[in-house]
Amino acid sequence: MKIKWMKMSALMISLAFSGSLWAEPISVVSSFSILGDVAQQIGGERVQVSNLVPADGDAHAYQLTGGDVKKLANAKLILINGLGLETGDVVRAVKNSKITYAEATAGISPIKHEEHEEHDHHDHAGHDHHHEIDPHVWHDPVLMQKYASNVATALIKVDPAGAKYYAARFKNYSAELSKLDAFARQQFNAIPKNQRKVLTGHDAFSYLGKRYGIEFIAPQGVSTEAQPSAKTVAAIVRQIKQTGVKAVFTENIKDGRMVQRIAQETGAKIGGKLYSDALSRDGNAKTYADLFRYNVRVMSGAMK
Ligand SMILES: [Zn+2]
Known about the structure:
By secondary structure, this protein is of the alpha/beta class.
């Protein structure tokens, strides 16, 4: 009797460990929440995704923690955005971990910005980074096709048994991205071109601007690290007064005081908050698709 019971428990244990019914999800660490969501959408139940920079966090100014290093060491796959979004510390930690990693923006040709101060016709402040690469690819759902495809390829590489599963989920996600593009086109096309102007805190929306013909004005450049000069701010105040920009927004990842100050000086009204570089905890941007639709709705609403 006793022997029988032991045999039985041994059988149960071996069943539990063989993973015959359901394999343990693979651990994917993503550098920030938007990319993490793309990995979750494509990876479904085969992945367990965690992010370094959390919802509402600022990836440009992120401080790597000891916990992050452990998280990276235990991952099966690490996903980063690339194009300079991640801080040097994060990139170094990813490389030092020796875990397989992939860049979601691989193969996408980025927007390169002239250094911010040189755009206005006032005195140059003498900054030396003349061509800053813009990492905010996710605000263009057309480019996100390649981004998501890179994520699918990376998942298949580390988990080839799931290849069909990932490919099928990628196909669905790709269809959703096409719908996001169609939605944005429809919303923005309803607005006269000369009214398609938006003020935000940092220069995060150039890919959206390029795709849908919107002009974005921002006191801060493509990173949130450098503070805007008084001259830049004064130039923006003049520009807003002259052109009558109606759509003025703060962002979920940063303090809105600069935008509030500009709004006050120009008499513009703040139209709300955009979700720039992270998903949110407030329920408006739980997924990338939510984030994109929300931003398009509030921007187009404010431009009318
Ligand atoms: Zn940014």
